[in-house]
Amino acid sequence: MLTGALLILAPLFLGFALALENRKVMTLIHYSVEGLVYFILVLLGLGLGQMEGLAAQLGGMMAQVLMLLASLFVANMVGLWLFHRWRPLSLEPAEDTVNHGYRRLFLAGLKPLLAVVVGLLAGYYLLPVFPMAEQLATWSLMVLLFLIGVQLRNAGLSLRKLLMNRQGLGIALALAASSLVAGAALVPWLGLPWHDALAVASGFGWYSLSGVVIGEALGPAWGGVAFLNDVLREIVALAIIPMLIARRPAMAIGYGGATAMDFTLPVIRSSGGLACVPVAIASGFLLSFLSPVMMAVFLSLG
């Protein structure tokens, strides 16, 4: 399992080492990343749909998802609140967030779920068993991680400056640490070894990564649990950011996890102001690196 974990990590760091300046190539990479994400999610749904005894396991999966989501929410909010108390962030006046752009982002958060549902229904009702689906998803994920590494390197962000952003670094570490606390507390209820439970808790909102990595290591049912937990984190984050960010910016930014540097960033910017942007980018960037590393390390212990 250690070899598989290293194979997952290698493309990310390889892509991060590649410097590109061609805008057309970067535009192509952007659209390729978007397409690969949905392709991987459809494959994840396909694997779930063709899983033996799916109907019998759905109830248990949903119970595990809700337990994981609730526990992580509470632990993350406590950890981020403590960080906010220690190092509060001053904000400028926010813009009006109740607009069509915000509603569009919230609805867009449902698209990953739709992609998985399409794959699930196709696998359950239409398509014959496709034994190569898991391997195809793994290779697609490796290509995706390589491209994301290229994007991170060429986003005009200095790794040194991001690591020196104490607010962003503190928020990322608070979220990661509190997630591990929640994962450890859930070990008796999830029925997983401690290291696997910590791996499941280490997705930080990166659903296309966690669903495939956990699914490959622990089976499609747990892959589905990891995916649903992380995609629901993103949807909940979109709902709570406007409510929390004025008084508790660390909690609002941090709960978005890895998505704070991309998908939830527009809502963070519009509701929290410019002061939140570098903090959100730093936090999301660091969590985007921590998530695959931590999942790989914990899964390698099995």
UniProtKB/TrEMBL annotation:
Annotated signal peptide: none
Q: Which residues cross the membrane?
A: 61-84, 105-127, 139-157, 169-192, 204-228, 235-257, 277-301
Keyword Transmembrane helix annotated:
yes
Pfam families xrefs:
Lys_export
Q: Does the keyword Transmembrane apply?
A: yes
Record GO cellular component, one term: plasma membrane
A single Gene Ontology MF term assigned here is:
L-lysine efflux transmembrane transporter activity
Alphabetical UniProt keywords: Membrane, Transmembrane, Transmembrane helix
Question: InterPro entries this protein is in?
Answer: LysO
Q: What is this protein called?
A: Uncharacterized membrane protein YbjE, DUF340 family
Q: Tell me the organism.
A: Marinobacter gudaonensis
